[in-house]
Structure formats: structure tokens, C-alpha cells
Specification:
Mean pLDDT: 92
Radius of gyration: 20 Å
Shape: globular
Helix content: 25-40%
Low-confidence stretches: 1-20
Order of helices and strands: HEEEEEEEEHEHEHHHHHEHEHH
CATH class: Alpha Beta
CATH architecture: 3-Layer(aba) Sandwich
Largest sheet: 8 strands, mixed
């Protein structure tokens, strides 16, 4: 069976532990204090989980920031060893863009220092609603402060500063990671040569009441308790159902069909993939990150963009269909942005940027080479 990258947790056997690379990626934590959100709320402490691949050049200018999707993590490349595993993962798990990031690959870690950052509010090790509120000694829960995509990006900038990164070759990521890439381009226009926004858009594509709809779905779980489910056994039942629906909308059935031709067996495998995520991801994180998109729209600020843009869509993506690409590209062109478009010819829908990475790797590699030529 082909590996499912960021969806499947590839379990190690006792014999396979011995062959895990000595340089397996390690999830680390960055912390900062008194972080002021755009809302004016000051968070006493903020932690951000991240991984790095490659080596930072002495001048600090060979870095790439990798930004992840809504419900995925910062584990982008390599295979985890027995330790240093990000929350929500297991030893042996392979990074979501492992086809694209690594030695000799499109984002070449022989030349580039890649920082793969988790999002503030996410459940993979960063400060999120399940984290302890220092003012109460209890989880933030539904009282977690309202975030914006701008807040998420500004914490990442502090992380990069702490690592000695002086300038980025690129910001690159899929889905919500593409949102972040566009936000980086308008917030810190002189800090990068380029951005790669894959299966994404420069503004929120969800309906205005999407966060409220999400809360209503979660409230169907008997343990929801107004978002205070931490002592109620959690809401894994509702999360599993939601994750199954999400994976199907992403195109997972097409990915599984060759290995599970029987529909019943395929359905069981989708549920099997959904359950570990549902047991580890905090439901309030879903709400917080969804709400952060309510004000997300970088299009009025396209005139700020100095970076070159590679915009990538999957032919079969239902969340960000190819039909939106002409409007995005026209708006970028009218703003004087150097932008180019690539469509992945894939049956894997929203999952194509990682699971069919080899189909657009040559385009990404050429784009990265062009950006490196500017360094």
C-alpha cells in the first residue's frame, strides 16, 4: 500500500526501529511572552511547535518557511524516529510534503534551511484552547482569544527571528498554509523572494457563518457542554464523523480505491484514518482557526506584494476549484505582481499537493531555483 503521508500514521515494527535515520526530524518548541493579538488581548505566554530541515547559512538568508493546513501539522519532511515526535503523531510518520522537501528535492535541503511552523491555535504542540490558561489554571477552552491569520504569521516571524533567519527565500504551504503564505506576502513584503500557495486562495472561501455552523455540528455530541468538554470525555464521536466527511471532500476515496476496491472496506479505512486525528485534535482549535479566517482577505493589499508568486491548484479540488484561478491571477497581474499558475493533473483533489507531489515537483524546483538566483 502506498504511504498516505500526513493522513496515515505509519506504525514501526520492532525491526524497522533500527533503520530509522539518525537525522530523523525533531519537533521543537519556541516560546514568547506578552504577545499582543490584533484584538488587543495580550497572551502571557505563547508556544509554537516547529521542525527544521537543512542548515541555516551564516548570513541567515537561505531559509524557507513551510506553513501547514487547517487540520494538519508542521511535520513536512522526513520520517520520525523513536523520539522528538510532534503531538498527535507517532514514530515512523512521514512528513506531508516529503515528496517535495529534502536533499535534492524541489525544496532542496542541501541548499536551503526549511522551518516548518505549526500555527498558534493548532493542536500539534502550540498554544491552543486545550492549553492551560495561566490566569485560571484550567484549559482556555471556548474562552481562547480570537485570532487572525495576521496573528498566526506574526508569531512565526518571532520564531524566525529567534533562529537567526534574516530573509526568506520563500514561504510555501498548502490550503490554510497558502492563506498564511499570502498573508506573509502582504505583511512582510520585503522579507521573502517568493511564495508558493498550493490548493489555496488569497482570501477566505468559507461562508461568513462557517464557525457557527461548526459549533452547531460539535454541539450534537452529548459531551460538548458548551465547549467545556475536557472533563466530559471529549467529543471524539463528533470529531470522527466530521473528519470522515472532511477526508472524503479532500479526495481520500480516490486515493484509497486502488488498495481498497470494496466500498465497505474503503469506508472502514477512512474511519480508521479519521479516529486517531479525532482523539488528538482539540475541537475548540477547529473553531478558533475557522474564526481566524472571518477577516482574512489579502486581495486589497496585493499592491504590497513584492514577492514572486507560484499559485498551484489541483484539477479535482472541490475546496479550491480551478475555476477560481483566473480571477486570482488577474488580480495579481493588475497589482503588478510577478505570478505564475500551475494546475496539478490529479485525481486526489485537495490532497494532491502532497500525495501527488511528484506531479508538480519540477515546476516547484524551477521556481525555487529562480528564487535562489536572487539570493
Amino acid at each position: 500500500m502506498h504511504r498516505l503521508l500526513f493522513l496515515a500514521a505509519t506504525m514501526m515494527t520492532a525491526s524497522s526501529e533500527a533503520v530509522l535515520a539518525a537525522d530523523a526530524p525533531v519537533s521543537k518548541l519556541f516560546a514568547t511572552h506578552d504577545f499582543r493579538l490584533e484584538s488587543g488581548v495580550v497572551m502571557p505566554e505563547v508556544t509554537l511547535a516547529y521542525e527544521t530541515y537543512g542548515t541555516l547559512a551564516p548570513d541567515g538568508r537561505n531559509a524557507v518557511l513551510a506553513t501547514h493546513g487547517y487540520t494538519s501539522s508542521h511535520h513536512f519532511a522526513g520520517r520520525y524516529g523513536a523520539s522528538g515526535v510532534a503531538k498527535g503523531h507517532r514514530p515512523g510518520d512521514v512528513g506531508s510534503w516529503d515528496e517535495l522537501i529534502g536533499a535534492g528535492k524541489a525544496i532542496d535541503t542541501d541548499k536551503l534551511f526549511v522551518v516548518a511552523s505549526n500555527m498558534l491555535g493548532s493542536s500539534y504542540g502550540s498554544t491552543n484552547p486545550a492549553s492551560t490558561n495561566p490566569k485560571t489554571g484550567k484549559p482556555y477552552g471556548p474562552h481562547f482569544p480570537r485570532l487572525t491569520v495576521g496573528d498566526i504569521v506574526r508569531v512565526q516571524k518571532l520564531l524566525l527571528d529567534s533562529l537567526g533567519v534574516k530573509h526568506l527565500v520563500a514561504v510555501a504551504g498548502p490550503s490554510y498554509g497558502g492563506y498564511q503564505a499570502f498573508q506573509w506576502a502582504v505583511t512582510y513584503p520585503a522579507f521573502m523572494h517568493g511564495i508558493v500557495a498550493a490548493v489555496s486562495a488569497p482570501k477566505n472561501m468559507r461562508p461568513p457563518n462557517a464557525a457557527q455552523q461548526l459549533i452547531e455540528q460539535l454541539a450534537e455530541d452529548p459531551h460538548w457542554n458548551g465547549g467545556w468538554y475536557y472533563d466530559q470525555g471529549g467529543v471524539s464521536s463528533a470529531l470522527t464523523q466530521m473528519r470522515v466527511a472532511t477526508l472524503k471532500s479532500y479526495g481520500i476515496e480516490a486515493r484509497l480505491a486502488p488498495d481498497y476496491p470494496d466500498p465497505t472496506a474503503r469506508e472502514a479505512e477512512v474511519v480508521k484514518l479519521a479516529e486517531p486525528w479525532a482523539q488528538n485534535f482539540d475541537a475548540n482549535s477547529l473553531v478558533v482557526l475557522r474564526r481566524a479566517l472571518e477577516t482574512f482577505d489579502t486581495t486589497p493589499l496585493f499592491g504590497n506584494i513584492k514577492a514572486k508568486v507560484l499559485y498551484v491548484i489541483s484539477r479535482t479540488d472541490k475546496l479550491f476549484p480551478p475555476a477560481i484561478a483566473p480571477g486570482v491571477m488577474q488580480a495579481l497581474k493588475e497589482a503588478g505582481v510577478d505570478a505564475r499558475y500551475y494546475e496539478i493533473d490529479s485525481e486526489l483533489g485537495h490532497l494532491a499537493s502532497g500525495l501527488d507531489g511528484e506531479k508538480w515537483a519540477p515546476t516547484l524546483k524551477a521556481f525555487m531555483a529562480e528564487l535562489l538566483g536572487q539570493s
